[in-house]
Design goal:
Strand 5 and strand 6 form a beta hairpin. Strands 12-11-10-13 form a four-stranded mixed sheet. It has a three-stranded antiparallel sheet with strand order 1-4-14, covered by helices on one side. The relative contact order is 0.14. The protein is of the alpha+beta class. Helix 1 packs parallel to helix 5, helix 3 packs parallel to helix 4 and helix 3 runs antiparallel to helix 5. Bound molecules: N,N,N-trimethyl-histidine (AVJ) and fe (iii) ion. The site of fe (iii) ion (FE) has 5 residues, from helix 3 and helix 5. This is Hercynine oxygenase. It comes from Actinacidiphila acididurans. Pathway: Amino-acid biosynthesis; ergothioneine biosynthesis.
């Protein structure tokens, strides 16, 4: 259907839903039916579960809630409710097969488009689900988040490569001479948002946070730097690890990032079915929070807090205002950040000078998710919307916050305020990190 004649918010929602659907089709059409049904790792659902779950959530929120329609297959809800069945158990469920799942996905979308065409998405409208097309934007983000999860399943899958994308551009000439760290001046800044139309509940409301002066790595920690930690015996020395981290390293037998293998004196890594030497100048990927935290301590530094990360990414010292992105308020373009699965890897450290923050920090958005030191907690004044199971049930010390998005994150699900979270042992996600230190002496507790 043409976007012509639709209100601006509806047209934007339509485009975001179509973009997500193209990616879903690419990721699920790339493999055989057998590979769609198979469980490639106990950590992940079969791809065919994600596919029908995308449609089931869309039926629930766009067809039934927003559209007030009876829906297509409410009988499927329990199979595709992420809270009813852990990922490891999903292959044993009576799931829709690949052909049935694809039919279901298409049938739901047909009704979604009818609902969208009729919806009053006026940003000032009275219905909070529809105002600014919020619920449609939420579902486009949901589909893209599952596409990222499916990309992680592809990364875990063994066998011949099936995904393809051009390599990111080489590092710019100044990448080798960037300062090691940048200064972020102290003082209050506005964290979170109350006016970004598709921001999710956990990003709201905006509130002032006083962040003391700190230094932040200009770029994410690279494979070369991380290999120094490995070579220095970092994985065998308890002094760098928290007690839980040290226990986990031993129980899980960690010696290097996930997907790395020893190759003589060096390392190779498996990436979407290809094996290659670990690229020295690329941000390190597939490390858990415990590894990131231990590396930082070994380097005499620490992980940034979530507030520090967001201040570095959004605060403009020239105006005192918090912006949507490090480079300003413009939506991300290919010159700003490595997003949207345009490439199947992070770009070299120091890339994307046009996406730099006022401090000079680069690649805060895109390339790799960045672990922060912070637990996933609600902001002051948080209210669950539209359902407790998106964020609220996860709040607390069990989850650590990640920021910034990776190469496989779509721009619709990535902003300076966007918050991701996961368990500190998680390694199959596209996560790296950068380190920080306080400017005031002694403040990091180890001076
Ligand atoms: C925000 C990435 C942690 O994948 O578990 C997907 C997003 N929520 N379906 C997840 C989500 C419901 C969520 N993360
Ligand atoms: Fe989901």
């Amino acid at each position: 259907p043409a976007a012509a004649g639709l209100p601006a918010a509806s047209a934007r929602a339509l485009a975001a839903l179509e973009t997500a659907r193209r990616r879903t089709a690419y990721l699920t059409d790339a493999v055989t039916e057998e590979d769609l049904i198979a469980q490639h790792s106990r950590l992940m659902s079969p791809l065919v579960w994600d596919l029908a779950h995308i449609a089931n959530q869309e039926e629930l929120w766009l067809v039934r809630e927003a559209g007030g329609r009876p829906g297509l297959r409410p009988d499927l809800d329990h199979l595709y409710d992420a809270f009813q069945h852990p990922r490891a158990d999903r292959p044993a469920l009576p799931l829709l097969g690949p052909a049935q799942a694809r039919e279901y996905v298409a049938a739901v979308r047909e009704q979604t488009l009818e609902v969208l065409a009729a919806a009053d998405t006026d940003p000032a409208g009275p219905e909070p689900l529809l105002a600014g097309a919020f619920v449609f934007g939420m579902l486009a983000q949901h589909e893209q988040q599952h596409d990222e999860t499916m990309l992680a399943t592809h990364q875990l899958r063994l066998g011949a490569p099936v995904l393809d994308a051009p390599a990111p551009p080489p590092a710019p000439a100044d990448a080798a001479t960037l300062p090691r760290e940048v200064l972020v001046p102290g003082g209050p800044f506005v964290m979170g948002t109350s006016d970004e139309p598709w921001a999710l509940d956990n990003e709201r409301p905006q509130h002032s946070v006083d962040v003391p002066t700190f230094w932040l790595d200009t770029v994410p920690v690279t494979n070369a730097a991380y290999q120094e930690f490995i070579a220095a015996g970092g994985y065998r020395d308890p002094q760098w690890w928290t007690p839980q981290g040290w226990r986990h390293v031993q129980d899980a037998g960690l010696v290097a990032p996930l997907f790395w293998s020893r190759d003589g004196a060096g390392w190779t890594r498996r990436r979407f079915g290809h094996v290659e030497p670990v690229p020295a100048d690329e941000p390190v990927l597939h490390v858990c929070w415990y590894e990131a935290d231990a590396y930082a301590r070994w380097a005499g530094r620490r992980l940034p807090t979530e507030a520090e990360w967001e201040k570095a990414a959004r605060h403009d010292p020239a105006t005192g205002r918090s912006r949507r992105y490090p480079w300003g308020d413009a939506d991300p373009g290919p010159e700003h950040a490595n997003l949207g699965q345009r490439h199947l890897r992070p770009a070299p450290a120091g890339s994307y000078p046009a996406g730099a923050a006022p401090s000079g920090a680069r690649q805060l958005i895109g390339d790799v998710w960045e672990w922060t030191s912070s637990d996933f907690d609600p902001y002051p004044g948080f209210t669950a919307f539209p359902y407790k199971e998106y964020s609220e049930v996860f709040f607390g010390p069990e989850y650590k916050v990640l920021r910034g998005g990776a190469f496989g994150v779509d721009p619709v699900a990535c902003r300076g305020t966007f918050r991701n979270w996961d368990y500190p042992i998680r390694r199959q996600i596209f996560a790296g990190f950068r380190t920080a230190r306080s400017a005031a002496p002694g403040e990091d507790g180890d001076a």
